[in-house]
Amino acid sequence: MLLLQDKVVCITGASQGIGRGIALGCARAGAKVVVHHLNTPQATLDAGQVIADIEKERSGVGLLGPGAVQVAGDISDECTADEVRASKLREGLTMSALADDLSELLFAHQIVQAAVTAFGRIDCCVSNAGVCPFYAFLDIPRGVWRSTRAINLDGAFYFVQVRKREPDFVMARVLTDRAEGWITQACARQMKEQIPQGGSIVAVSSISALVGGGEQAHYTPTKAGVKSLMESCAISLAPYKIRCELPAHTSEGDKSDRMTLMPSKRKCVIGNSVLPGNRCEISVCWLVKLASELRAVFFPLHHAGTIETPINAEDLEDPVKRAYMEKRIPLSRLGRPEDLAGPAVFLLSEMAAYVTGAYVLVDGGAFVNLQ
């Protein structure tokens, strides 16, 4: 049984890692997928590879005919919009890879428009991107506190509750506390207004919503905020048949207080991009460029650094650190991106029709292992 047959799923940060794993999982479950990624050459290449991988997987679930469409650039562009409309003519599994350019169109409006233009509606949203710099509490710059909150927490809110953008909106203001006044109509509003009404929203979260971190005093509050936000959204949006879930995994950085990270290993990670440098001063330019894929959250899938992705690959090359992480996990192995796909597909599907506001740990048992 294909749990997401003909469902339209929007996924942010889906060109690699966990986002890619969930995108492939949704596609194998029968979904039509809008893949959102950074508008950079590497992310575009990665998204193209995701589509190629989808083509290889389709035959295994009996989906025939063309099934992959890549859309790059501003969806408001007339030519690009025609490309997206053409995807409606495709049979079987259909996937659109959407490269967002914040300098041209607000990320949330663009994703919604792309999905509705291509497939007529949005059934599911998956927020998979975030930022995670490391700082000792007394060393946290004010700008890092603001940017981490803006991307991880504000971004989750805006993607869900975005309103119609005003004609003279200023893109940089999306990252301020007044941003909700400049944007309109994103995922939840679309799900409320479409016929039939409803949908499901999953946010890939972190175990940092539940525990502290010695070098993450600016990060863990944002994850706790997202958890609270999704729980409140589950109540607020239930009358519109919209479910909100929180799957969470563990990330290698979430336990940085237990194992010292060498300065050379410290990086600030945003979605599919890694900012160079030990202390990662995040400029407004970087935020405007990279925040594009950091904007969808409802069901947080929580993990705690136990999932191997390109983000933590360098640190996990250290045999001591790898052995430490594996020893902490009762299932005795690090997780893979596809380990998040199953829980995400379940929560997005009608199999979870009576599940909302749930917080699901996907960490191999790491959180409960206190010894």
TrEMBL record:
Answer whether the UniProt record assigns the keyword Oxidoreductase to this protein.
yes
Under the heading CDD domains, the entry gives: SDR_c (cd05233)
Query: Oxidoreductase among the record's keywords?
Result: yes
List, alphabetically, the InterPro entries matched.
NAD(P)-bd_dom_sf, SDR_fam
Q: Which GO terms describe its molecular function?
A: oxidoreductase activity, acting on the CH-OH group of donors, NAD or NADP as acceptor; quinone binding
Q: Which GO terms describe its biological process?
A: fatty acid biosynthetic process
**UniProt keyword annotations, A-Z:** Oxidoreductase
Q: Which family does it belong to?
A: Belongs to the short-chain dehydrogenases/reductases (SDR) family.
Which protein are we looking at?
Answer: BZ3500_MvSof-1268-A1-R1_Chr3-2g06224 protein
